[in-house]
Amino acid sequence: MRRSSSRIFVGLLVIFFLASPLYAEEIHPGPSERSDPLAAVTSANPSQDNFSLPNWHYGAYLDLSYIVNFNFPENHRSRSRTTAARHNELAPNMALAYVRKDATSESRWGMEFGLQSGYDSKDFAFLQGEQKVDGADTLRHFHRANMSYLAPVGDKDLTVTAGLFNSLIGYESLYAKDNFNYTRSWMADNTPYMMFGVNARYPLSDDLTATVYVINAYYHLAHPNDQPSYGGQLSWKATSRVTVTETIYYGPAQANTSMEFWRLYSNYNAEWKRDDITLALSYDFGTENIAGQPGSPRAFVTAAALFTRWHIAGPWSVAVRPEFYWDRNGRWTGNEQFVKAVTTTLEYKVPYRWTNAVLRLEHRYDESTGMNGGFFKRGDVQPGVPGLAKEQHLLLLGLLCTFDSP
Fold this sequence. Notes:
It is a single chain. By secondary structure, this protein is mainly beta. It has one domain (3-26, 57-404): Porin (Beta Barrel), CATH 2.40.160.10. 8% of the residues lie in helices and 51% in strands. It has helices at 3-19, 21-27, 136-139, 186-189, and strands spanning 56-69, 90-101, 109-117, 142-153, 156-166, 194-203, 208-215, 229-237, 242-252, 262-273, 277-289, 298-313, 316-327, 337-352, 355-369, 375-382, 385-389, 391-404. The strands form two sheets. Strands 1-2-3-4-5-6-7-8-9-10-11-12-13-14-15-18 form a 16-stranded antiparallel β-barrel. A hairpin with a 4-residue loop joins strand 8 (229-237) and strand 9. The protein is globular. Residues 16-52 have low confidence and may be disordered.
């Protein structure tokens, strides 16, 4: 097994041991921020009557969809996509169970641990054609696995997190339940959904927060080399309704680790929120010189999306997301193409106590042009080679079931 795969696997096992409730309760027996049903079970000692267990949360998630692709490809797949890619069949895209403890000023250790499975967990952790770490088929089942500590620094707290954590790049999540639309944007599918390493977050002021991170690679289950990558983020709360975030990634993403071949990727998000309306504009660009090709050509990708969501009334919401994605050299999607897409989603939510059942009806239109652009369609151009169409229309019904402890 390659050293990078071994480091990831051993790190996750250590985190799993440290994150177990018995061990965690020993290292932070302080009171929780909010009440817990188990807090009513106290000892006979009256001095412990106000004791409550640490602030633990647990939950589960199930994501099913049926996506009608009107190109009707025989392979039932969407080209250049890593999530919601199974079409014209019932698809269990994600099943997840997790436990989490928040780090607070009263109980400074925190943790996350979860396991997942489903179609969306198969290819989310590497770019098209990238070499995987040995054991990737096992490691992909880890949702998150990290430990965090809230350290008092000055008059504020520094949060340090180590292990497998949510990516700092991008606006959308791997999990459809966390997004406005069911299918994810092109920029989300081609940037990391998770990171493996360490990050440190510190509020420089009430309105400005800085984060730095060191991770094993652009994608945590890819293995281009044995060198780490670096990055940082600034998040500015410009007003009570507007938040602006910039995130930078910089590091070696090829076998040749000379700095002239390091990848630079930058993500910008501006979000405006009102009671029932959210608007967010996201813009990305990335570049690197490609080693091993004549002249070391410079690869370039750029993308933008406008995320909009309107809570109409009661259980009803609607979301619209126009976007574009230009992969000039095919470095990110595996194909040289310029993509335009519009996604429209109608949502109906049925909450009950700690659970939510969400139904989403969605239409998505994609157009791909360029030397290698296109989407799979019915009929092979030769045996085993699917034909390509310039456009793709999808109509889907998604069922998202969540259980989250209070």
